[in-house]
Amino acid sequence: MMMVGKDQIFSFVKTPSLVIFGLCLATVTLLGGFRLRWPPNLVNFTIGRLGYYSTGGETCELFKGKWIWDEKRPPLYTNLTCKTLPDKKNCLLHGRTDSDYIRWRWKPAGCELPRFNPSKFLSIVRGKTLAFIGDSVGRNQMESLLCQLSTEESPNEVYKDAKDRFTTWQFPKHNFTLMVLWTRFLVNSSQTVVNSSVTGAFDLHLDKIDLNWAQNLPAVDIAIISDAQWFLRENYLYEGGELIGCIYCQDPKVTNLGPGFAIQRAFRAALNYINDCKDCSGILTLLRTYSPSHFENGTWKTGGSCLRTHPFGTEEIKDHVEDLDYRNIQVTEVETARKSGQKNGNAYGLLDVTEAMLMRPDGHPGLHWRRKKKGYSDCVHWCLPGPIDAWNELLLEVLRQHSPLPLRSKQHALRFN
Description:
Layout: E1 27-30, E2 34-37, E3 52-55, E4 58-69, E5 104-109, H1 118-124, E6 129-134, H2 136-149, E7 156-160, E8 167-171, E9 176-182, E10 187-194, E11 197-209, H3 211-214, E12 222-225, E13 235-239, E14 242-247, H4 258-276, E15 284-288, H5 321-341, E16 347-351, H6 354-358, H7 389-402
Parallel strand pairs: 6-9, 6-12, 11-13, 12-15, 15-16
Antiparallel strand pairs: 1-2, 3-4, 4-5, 7-8, 8-9, 10-11, 13-14
InterPro entries: TBL, TBL_C, TBL_N
Membrane topology: Single-pass membrane protein
GO molecular function: O-acetyltransferase activity
């Protein structure tokens, strides 16, 4: 088994398919953990061997594993030490009495990996701009990363819109910019109007990109793209200006195409946009796979809850077929985009969190999120600190593999509507 020094505490780090048996030029060195040195062409990887290491004949599948209890592993930050921790993710502040959910670490099949190192992360991204493109779950990951990095350097908030959706932070000592480019669907959308009144549904134009995030792409070096939760509700789907179907609608005249269809088309449009963007050559795009919710006995609006206090085992997630289907759709689309993007020097990878997070029904705020929403359980987002901190362990490992990141000529300033 591959190990590092016993003084290091391990946590959830996964690796996308960048490491494969067919990539002969990649070599592995053990320098306080795993260190992969990549050839100049960073786009040569195969998603078909997702999450594997091969070292000295030993193979480690990092996306398969289980959560291990480790009471000696403290989080890098707490709800008291992180000054940027948002109130509605502060589960302990809002009355959660158990803290076991922060004491589990991910154990990949066949290996151990070191925990998140903020100094190494900031060193890799020095001089870069990293954007989380997606909905509030993507923002949740940024908030986790912000807390983790703040243990090394205090960031400065340089922009926040009126609705607190688009936000930008800078780490001046490392000339590093961290931001959220918020979007519900990645593609253009507007609320559905019936009899001059807006409804809870949205009209999605699957062939038109949401320019609120896309207009800022040329200023970004690393794009972490995600989305899915907003698709799991009543929506109406358009292409070429024509209604082609819906998701969960009750209109017998409209074909119910389901969330998977819309997720596929939206990610395809977004990834095609990245590859077609003339000013985005050399960008590293990482697709963070579907983050499952854990509502039981109802939904967000019908009294659903998430009261569990321990992780699931592998047997308990086998029936979550739809969740894994959404993940598989995303993986297929990023592989297609990778093949197309090679000509532009664009690199692609995965932060494949779906299976691991299916096992964590205990990690959501539940009722412990904010008082003005009393009675509603948040079983979508994740407590801070909590299991979502593991996503950035994964992110660090992916960035290590791509290090050093290429220099890009960025002449576009950030723009916000």
